[in-house]
Predict the structure.
Amino acid sequence: MARDEIIEQLRRARDDGQSAVAIAELLGRLDPRGLTDATVIFGFKVAFPEIPLQTIQDACQWHRVSRGRLTDDEFNEMLSAWLGPARRES
């Protein structure tokens, strides 16, 4: 899948009210590199340029992409100011 198509799908997921976790899981399925801190940083920054880079980097302390301690709920909360509160999961 082309990068532009991935970005469009991430934006559509946000517009559909999916959580940051659900959007990241979608990214992991669509990106051939899988779900890593690098794919989260790149994918979220390109899809959602309004999110400060430092915030995305801080969010990568999420336990699913690093040895960090952020839970799924904390990951969602950290990004909710830009992605909105989750209305439903994928």
